[in-house]
Amino acid sequence: MTSGSIHALVGANGAGKSTLMKVLAGVNTHYTGQISVGGEPVEIRCPKDAKNLGIEIVFQEVDTALIPYLTVAENVMFNTLVNKMGKKQVVHWKEIKRAAKAVLEKLNVAVDINKPVSALTLAQKQMVLIARCVVEKCRFLILDEPTAPLSNSETLELFRVVRELAKENVGVVFISHRLSELYEICESITIMRDGMLVTNLPLTKELEVNTLVEYMLGRCYEDNYIKKRVKLENRSLK
Hints:
Layout: E1 6-10, H1 17-25, E2 35-37, E3 40-42, H2 47-52, E4 55-58, H3 72-76, E5 83-85, E6 88-90, H4 93-106, H5 122-135, E7 140-144, H6 152-167, E8 171-175, H7 179-185, E9 188-193, E10 196-202, H8 209-217, H9 221-237
Parallel strand pairs: 1-8, 1-9, 4-7, 7-8
Antiparallel strand pairs: 2-3, 5-6, 9-10
Helix pairs in contact: 4-5
């Protein structure tokens, strides 16, 4: 994928999506193979390596990455809270609030920067984490099942923010089991199965959901449906 594009990554459970994302985030350090960014081979052996390359990830369990008793501003600016001045470590609260407010306004996200994160909705917490990634000047943002807990209106708001990030030349990897929604937000798609790449395709209306499912399962969608139906009918006869 390239900067400024929105790319889908899909696969059945166990296909290897989460492992791949952990490798790119520097969490899974014992990988083999080669990673390339901008056509250049790179090593990602810790989260700092990923950050230095501009790779950020928002995992589905957003609460694990947030400090609930800190404010929105503090969580957005978490990695730049403390500044060193000689032997002293200081926090410039006015600057922290100003910068957090600026990035949230840039994303057009209406959240009170003085509110504790524990008081936010799940969708708002996602936006706080995305804002933190913007502060970190990310080049590539990975969203792991971001719409799974969201309502339709919250999903539309997330899509809006993702499109804004793409306009800012951020490449977005969008992982989802909701295949139909990918057509609304993604331009291309990568399909994995059993830890391997199956195919990369442009995501157009001509590419049917059934075809995506067949790539994911490695067998015909109709055959899979018929086998399951026969098995259920046989059970009901016993």
